[in-house]
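Dear support,

I submitted the protein below through the web form. The confirmation email said the job was done, but the results page showed an empty box. After a refresh the structure appeared. I'm attaching both so you can tell me whether what I see now is the final result or a partial one.
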Amino acid sequence: MNLDLPLSVPAIAYLAWHEAYPGHHAEHAVKERSLVTGGVGEASMRTMNTPEAMLAEGQADVAREVVMSNRELAFEYERIGQATGIQADWAHAVEIYLANFGLNPVAGNAAFLLHRDARPLDEVRAWAREMGAMDERELDHLLRVLQHPLYRTYPFTYTAGAGLIREWLQVTGQTSGFWRLLSEQVSPAQLLAELQPGGLA
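What the results page shows now:
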């Protein structure tokens, strides 16, 4: 966990579903049992900036939508708030969270400005501040990520992955589709093919 930035109640809930259940930890545990012990040893390795990473991050970002409604999320915020002594209008907090989640493409667009368009760093910072509604600490973190040679394209794994998986789950069904993501080795190309007419058997 990155403790450089303060953790809000919505951030704590997000970390729980994205990193643990039903996100990354659940996926790793299920694939350990369903694939690795079945002889697919390469499934124990996690790779960066790959089609696999796109699906893993997309699946972890969409995970909460599969197991919890927005109303249930408000109850979870309230539970965390009570444990930490924070009071708020938690239903409104969910609305704010969902609106902020819609700003996720800002990171990828900032990467385009910085690397494709060679815009000055201070210009990219000002653009991300305005378009992403970020404070200075969040901007510092984003720009560190975007300047790192390994991570600078990683923001795309979240937005592209979540978009593809959301659309695919609408076709396959959330429960059965999400189980496939947790337990099988699938690729973005496979999911895209299944979205085509006649793509699902």
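Response: this is the final, complete result; the empty box was a page-load delay. The longest helix spans residues 155-172.
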